[in-house]
Amino acid sequence: GENVEQHPSTLSVQEGDSAVIKCTYSDSASNYFPWYKQELGKGPQLIIDIRSNVGEKKDQRIAVTLNKTAKHFSLHITETQPEDSAVYFCAASPLGYKYIFGTGTRLKVLA
Amino acid sequence: DAGVTQSPTHLIKTRGQQVTLRCSPKSGHDTVSWYQQALGQGPQFIFQYYEEEERQRGNFPDRFSGHQFPNYSSELNVNALLLGDSALYLCASSLGDEQFFGPGTRLTVL
Predict the structure, then answer these.
(1) What Å distances lie between residue B28 and A81, B2, B40, CA to CA?
(2) d(CA A79, CA B76)
(3) B5 to chain A: nearest residue by CA?
(4) Which of B24, B45, B53 to mutate to test the interface with A (most CBs of A within 10 A)?
(5) What mean pLDDT is predicted for residues B36-61?
(6) pLDDT for residue A53 is more than 80
(7) Please, what sign has the CA dihedral across residues B57, B95, A44, B2?
(8) How far is A91 from chain B (nearest CA, A)?
(9) Cβ burial, residue A27 (10 Å; 0-12/13-18/19+)
(10) Mean of the per-residue pLDDT values for chain B?
(11) CA–CA min distance B2, chain A (Å)
């Protein structure tokens, strides 16, 4: 069935270091891959997304890569800051329809 | 421009009761999706409404139903509440493929 696996479940990094979160999806019809950041007591916030016709996208300290052949996509955060600490979710979707979310990665940036 | 709003913020019900949750989409958005997020888990898709019709549904029982109004706002109804229905219920609105989430309604079933 439809499934998105996300690793690692927890990640601790020193401030200034990079963080990488990886996801694998199963549904070949997926062509849109958003990433969300969720802080305690809040709803998920869209931070970056990528479509299947693009291999990489960057927005300041955040980048996402997609390997459609392998059905892998990854989130890269460089120069991490304490305010980056949160739970991050990847998702996969056919455009405009339901999202299948990963199980989340709790990122802790140590000052 | 207000984002997605949801009401109420918190709700406590007992088993067997019924509950209605409400969502107002972001201005200009015509599609509303509902998700259930259990503690420590990723959101699970319940259903999506577009043009006042349920367009897609996830693997949830018929106890979960919804409605979309002409102004694009939406309601989620859950009947015969079970303890396992305790979760954060998220509403997301969209115009295309990007979904923007509200803060959620925390439902506790005792």
Answers:
(1) 34, 11, 32
(2) 41
(3) A43
(4) B45
(5) 95
(6) yes
(7) negative
(8) 9
(9) middle
(10) 96
(11) 15
Which pLDDT does position B84 carry in this prediction?
Answer: 97
First to last CA, chain A: 41
Determine the pLDDT at residue A50.
95
Contact B43 A32 (CB under 8 A): no
Concatenated DSSP letters of B12-41: EE-TT--EEEEEEPPTT--EEEEEEE-TTS
CA A4 to chain centre: 11
Report angle CA B25, B87, A83 to the nearest 5 degrees.
Answer: 70
Amino acid identity for residue A24 in this structure: T
Cβ-Cβ contacts under 8 Å, A45 against chain B: 101
Mean pLDDT of B41-60: 95
**Which pLDDT belongs to residue A2?**
81
- For residue A44, the distance in angstroms to the closest alpha carbon of chain B comes to 6
User: With contact defined as beta carbons under 8 Å apart, do B43 and B36 qualify?
Assistant: yes
pLDDT band at residue A66, thresholds of 50, 70 and 90? very high
Residues of chain A with C-beta less than 8 angstroms from the C-beta of B42 = 4, 6, 89, 91, 101-104
Mean pLDDT for the stretch of residues A72-82: 97
| C-beta atoms of B45 and A103 within 8 A | no
- Rg from Cα positions in chain B: 13
The answer to whether B4 contacts chain A (CB < 8 Å) is yes
Put simply, whether B96 touches A (Cβ < 8 Å) is yes
Assess contact for A45 and A31: CB atoms under 8 A.
no
